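[Discussion] Sanity-checking designs against the backbone

I'm trying to build intuition for which residues belong where. Below is a structure token string of 282 positions. I'd appreciate it if someone posts a full sequence so I can compare it with mine line by line.
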């Protein structure tokens, strides 16, 4: 039997707890929490009772438990449970809901179990960012994107209009282009643009086709490419373009360019060496 592992991380910036139960076979009796629980099943199958309704939950399912909502579950099948979740207090959720909907009201969800690939992907990315201790503001984007989708599709209706905010988005872009070498926070971009986080994220994505964080990383990668082409060492290129973690830089460079920073630099080193050899031959 797979060893049971339970891990939990509290993110001080988001004020959210992320946890993972891996290899769990124990049943959980009927109980409730005073906070919101948003989780997803990675492996295993369970029988779930919630809101007086029975569910058979499987990998890929997203679970939504509201404060005070009774629920209990037990294993079905041979495979143990790999479950990952987020705990969000009512105080934090109320602030987030106000940012997203404009109304300082706690959201309710129409479903306890949903199967939504986009929401599952957002939840998985956010959970991973918190568990890894990410200090980048993409985790805020992931949180707002996740809750916006949940409230739009499974919560109380709210205004879904996305404002153009052309001048505001231009100010946000200019700020990132001028400060990409520094550590930037989402709050700074919002202040520069004069928009709330929720409005900025929605308007920016509609206007640019990417999130602010992705836009910032594109700027940084572009600057890093120029440095690498000039022979700058990857570690120095990372530091000079705002990447304070080498693995973070390498992962993004690979994703955007398809090569590691070192391999990309070698291409231009070889060109320089070849050009030098030709000159000597003349």
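Best answer:
Here's mine. Compare freely.
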């Amino acid at each position: 039997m797979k060893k049971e592992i339970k891990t939990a991380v509290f993110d001080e910036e988001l004020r959210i707890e992320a946890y993972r139960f891996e290899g769990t076979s124990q049943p959980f009796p009927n109980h409730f929490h005073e906070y919101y629980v948003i989780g997803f099943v990675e492996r295993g199958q369970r029988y779930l009772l919630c809101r007086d309704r029975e569910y058979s939950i499987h990998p890929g399912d997203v679970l939504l438990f509201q404060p005070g909502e009774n629920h209990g579950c037990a294993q079905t099948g041979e495979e143990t449970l790999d479950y990952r979740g987020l705990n969000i207090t009512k105080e934090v959720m109320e602030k987030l809901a106000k940012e997203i909907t404009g109304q300082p009201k706690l959201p309710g969800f129409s479903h306890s179990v949903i199967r939504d690939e986009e929401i599952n992907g957002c939840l998985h990315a956010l959970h991973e960012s918190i568990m890894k201790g990410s200090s980048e503001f993409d985790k805020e984007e992931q949180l707002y994107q996740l809750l916006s989708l949940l409230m739009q599709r499974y919560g109380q209706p709210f205004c879904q209009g996305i404002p153009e905010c052309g001048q505001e988005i231009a100010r946000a872009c200019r700020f990132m282009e001028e400060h990409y070498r520094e550590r930037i926070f989402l709050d700074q971009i919002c202040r520069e643009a004069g928009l709330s986080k929720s409005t900025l994220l929605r308007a920016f994505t509609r206007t640019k086709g990417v999130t602010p964080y992705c836009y910032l990383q594109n700027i940084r990668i572009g600057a890093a490419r120029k440095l690498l082409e000039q022979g700058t060492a990857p570690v120095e290129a990372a530091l000079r373009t705002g990447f304070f973690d080498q693995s973070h830089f390498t992962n993004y460079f690979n994703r955007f360019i398809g090569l590691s920073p070192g391999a990309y630099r070698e291409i231009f080193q070889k060109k320089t060496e070849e050009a030098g050899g030709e000159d000597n031959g003349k």
